[in-house]
Amino acid sequence: MAQEKQLGIGLIGAGAIMRLSHIPTVMKSGIAKLVGIYDPSRERADALAESSGSRSFETLDALLDSREIDAVIIATPNNRHEEAAVAAAKAGKHILCEKPLAIDIQSATRIVKAAEEAHVVLQVGFNQRFWSQVQIAKQLIDSGFIGDVHAFRSVYSEKASAYPAASRYRYDLAQSGGATIIDLTIHRIDLARHLVGDMTGVFAELSHHVLPEKVDDNVWLLTRFANGARGGLSSDRYSPAIGDGTDLYGTEGSIHIASETLNPFHAAPLAVYTERKAADLPDVLRDAHYPDAWWNTFEGGWIKIFPPRKSPYAGQFAEFCRCIQEGAVPLASGIDGLRAQEVVQGAYISKNEGRWVDLPLPADAPFNLPSY
């Protein structure tokens, strides 16, 4: 059988995430090739192109005009996502856009519409959906293994200097559209939607404590879900140790997920509590349990799972390529990006007005960044 043609990938943006994740992922994929890079800083684009064995483009239009390029990965400051994504859609290029999809729901809606009209794949870079432990948890929840989920909580914290960013645009609100909430918390907003379902309300406390820029570096959200569940999400940009952990509580069990890091509070990347006996366990749990003695069987309790540590960026990119080849809707679609953006924008309204905000937001919902 003839090997399928490799997909030609163009990169829009030449920052740290391209160098650390997207370029290695494309080059190791075996199903795609890196064609070239565009960045407003030609010097930065040239340096990244030279190190990756590709080439740089002088303009965005030049990259999008290339017949070698089938799809683009967008990783620019957030306020430039719309321009790049809409132009890529009009050029017939499939789009993998880093989160957040945009800085407000109006911009995100225009991106989604442009991709739909052009019949191109639009995937949002919510890579945390692709951790093995998240995928196992999703299967257990969807199968009803832990019963009806009534509570979700998650923490994702990281000091600002931990990530080797090329600039501090994340803390320039005109470029980023938000700081900690739109860079860290939005990952867990998406994870909550992925595992529990759509949110119907948000109440937010966003504050500034440590960073030199007057931005949100301490985030706390309360959320309501369409299935009646409640959630609590928190993030900060000052914790020297990365804070990470997601818990789901159901009527028949609990699930704990650690994805970004393990610390002394984590027993395993994935831990599941159930009162079911061995015969009623799915294989993934039965195979993971080690009894006190070989002749004993599982009688209920915690089961720790250590799935292979596979790059979520590799899984994300494989999904992107599959959807291009099959004409499928991605696991993390443009609509998922829009819905996550609604939670962020709703949180701003909540902070500014001191109230619960119903979701989804109306199309003309205001976008007013809080002051700190």
Automatic annotation (TrEMBL):
Its EC number is 1.1.1.18. InterPro entries: Gfo/Idh/MocA-like_OxRdtase_N, Gfo/Idh/MocA_oxidrdct_glycsds, GFO_IDH_MocA-like_dom, NAD(P)-bd_dom_sf. Keywords: Oxidoreductase. Residues 8-126 form the Gfo/Idh/MocA-like oxidoreductase N-terminal domain. Residues 135-255 form the GFO/IDH/MocA-like oxidoreductase domain. It comes from the Bacteria. This is Myo-inositol 2-dehydrogenase. It comes from Paraburkholderia metrosideri.
